[in-house]
Amino acid sequence: MGIDPRYALSEIRKNFTSLNWWRNRVFVPFVIGTATQFHPGYPGYDEGIHVMEEDWDTMIVLDACRADYFEQVVDLDQYDEYDSRVSLGSHSSEWTRQNFQGESFGDTVYVSANPHTSLEAGDAFHHIVELWETDFDDDAGVVLPGAVRDAAIDAYEEFPDKRLIVHFMQPHGPFLATERDDYDEQSAYWQAYVENLELVLPYVDDIIDAVPGKTVVTADHGQVFASGLKERLGIGGHKARLRFPSLVEVPWAVRDGERREIRTGEISEAQGEQVQDRLKDLGYV
Predict the structure, then answer these.
(1) Which of 257 and 225 is assigned the larger pLDDT?
(2) How do the domains of the chain map onto residue ranges?
(3) What SUPFAM superfamilies does the record point to (predicted)?
(4) Which of 225, 251, 228 minimizes the C-alpha distance to 236?
(5) CATH number assigned to the domain covering 5-281
(6) What is the pTM of this model?
């Protein structure tokens, strides 16, 4: 998708004196991002998986879940197949645009705790369950995994002949098992990240048990921890356009099941109105 020159000029005028804006919106994605795309051994966009072209009835997305941590935490023997795949994005917005924007998936219902679904592809699906709008927990600062699980099972029961995408926010922060939101030590950060991944996995299992069909568990992108020079350069977290392996290598765990008969239908448009508020709550803005 091209850049609207008018929007770009407006952004530059508004943020011209902000060093953070130049770092996060120009230097990181276009200078460092371009370098990673041509770095030998880094996964390029041409290696990325187009998730809608894959064979599944239900796809469960764990936001910001790195393949290596998934492999450490999850009992892979519970799946019929497992390997890692390369994502088309290193940020939820990029992944959503690359996989769904401008397309029509009348055979798919999307249950999402991530507002980027509606923002970037709000007119791409048969129906979007906008949990970020209706079930956001103000105390936790995120949609809790129990709400995602319950909505996913309800969506299957309402739309049994549709493919189902279920997008949890975990292990993406805020980390629910701790009240900390600032980490100076890498070990403490990854411990909290792992605990957030462990927290969401039982809800993933509940969906697999309750919803028939072939299920894939994957992620939109990974995560990096930055300190020192990396932190000063602004490449921590999961900025768009960066092709670091830790940001784009995601799990692809398959559980076979009795297949559902999928039928296509009409496209509906997302109705959520609190997109910017929720993006800010989740640290995207």
Answers:
(1) 257
(2) 5-281
(3) Alkaline phosphatase-like
(4) 225
(5) 3.40.720
(6) 0.89
